[in-house]
Design goal:
single chain; about 350 residues; alpha/beta; TIM Barrel; 2 domains; eight-stranded mixed β-sheet; eight-stranded parallel β-sheet; binds pyridoxal-5'-phosphate; PLP-binding_barrel; Alanine/ornithine racemase family PLP-dependent enzyme; pyridoxal phosphate
């Protein structure tokens, strides 16, 4: 069983090297990167590779994932704004959380007092990407005031999120707006904020061209560390994109026509399939399906093979043109998009193997 396919292979030395490169890049500009593990479902191995690469704060969107990383010597940051009903666990397993709601902040304060702890809050401001955060600067400043007044809480800083929902690219202008609000909070409260958290891996192109304004001192990096990609999934110079690959096994290999015999019904997903007649083709069926991963997110490493479709548990490939004479039992490898990696990481049917 331990060698079974499908398997997602994760190259930890490459992940560590990506982390090292991004830590070096960020620290040269006075920025502390947070290593985000959510794509890897809070994998302990991935988190360790980040720490070996110089990361000092780990972040994840799910409190359950942070719970798994408690033994690691790093600060834990909860990325997704918490549910008030999770306040006790948030205070227990996260040192810092991103927040935008008074109701939840009050619940966190009560939970911190009950546990005799201090929980740190980064107040989120929405610069137009329209996911989390107060849209109005006055509301953001008011929340910062509230955090600084409530027992059990510490105002850690100000943050924003971009390029996640609305496709708003981190820019000198929007990052400067965040710095300006941070200055306003510092002025009104007479404090120095520890953190001004600009964006995700999507901000790395801006940093690389020297456009990130002074005052931004944190970036939250996931895709760049784990996959070497950032804004628009473009590769980040100095990182590797070969950190993960999916291996699947061929369970049938036969020559068949390319058009079904008397096709009149819908496929398993309720669609009317269309076929092009290419004559008799060599077709491989692999043991993975749409229950595991969306086929559009698979990138064959053998450029001569073509994904022609499949169903919940079967992936059908056309291997007629491949130089390699594939056989039943062979393994076929794919690179993955961010979405594909996320699905494979999450599927309990895909084994994970961490290469050291
Ligand atoms: C996922 C996430 C990140 C990391 O994004 P990457 O594109 O993987 O670098 C940063 N901040 C927040 C709030 C997130 O949800």
């Amino acid at each position: 069983m331990s060698q079974s396919l499908p398997c997602l292979f994760v190259d930890l030395p490459l992940v560590r090297a990506n982390a090292e490169a991004m830590v070096e890049l960020c620290e040269a500009s006075g920025i502390h990167p947070v290593g985000i593990t959510k794509l890897a479902c809070g994998s302990h191995e991935v988190a360790e590779a980040y720490l070996d690469g110089g990361i000092r704060t780990l972040g994840d969107s799910r409190i359950h994932n942070l719970e798994k990383l408690q033994d690691l010597p790093a600060q834990k940051l909860l990325l997704r704004i918490p549910a008030a009903s999770d306040a006790m666990d948030v205070v227990r397993y996260a040192d810092i959380s991103l927040n935008s709601e008074e109701h939840t902040i009050r619940a966190l304060s009560a939970a911190a007092v009950a546990q005799g702890r201090v929980h740190k809050i980064i107040v989120m401001h929405d610069l137009g990407d329209l996911r989390e955060g107060c849209f109005n600067a006055d509301d953001t400043v008011a929340l910062a005031h509230l955090v600084s007044e409530l027992p059990g809480l510490e105002l850690e800083g100000l943050g924003t999120n971009l390029a996640c929902y609305g496709g708003v690219e981190p820019s000198t202008e929007n990052q400067q707006q965040l710095v300006d609000i941070a200055h306003r909070i510092e002025h009104e409260l007479g404090v120095k904020l520890h953190v001004v958290s600009g964006a995700s891996s999507a901000a790395l192109p801006l940093l690389l061209r020297g456009g990130l304004p002074d005052g931004i001192n944190q970036l939250r990096l996931g895709a760049s560390l784990l996959m070497g990609i950032g804004l628009n999934d473009d590769p980040i110079p100095g990182t590797s994109q070969d950190t993960m690959r999916l291996g699947v096994e061929i369970i049938e290999l036969k020559e068949k026509p390319s058009v079904p015999v008397n096709s009149t019904a819908l496929d398993a997903f309720g669609n009317k399939p269309v076929f092009e007649d290419l004559g008799i083709r060599r077709r491989a069926i692999c043991a993975i399906g749409k229950q595991d991963v969306n086929f559009d997110d698979l990138i064959p490493l053998d450029p001569a093979l073509r994904i022609i479709g499949g169903s919940s548990d079967h992936l059908i490939l056309d291997v007629t043109e491949t130089a390699q004479p594939y056989q039943v039992g062979d393994t076929i490898y794919f690179a993955l998009s961010y979405g594909g990696a996320l699905q494979c990481m999450t599927s309990e049917y895909v084994r994970k193997e961490y290469l050291h």
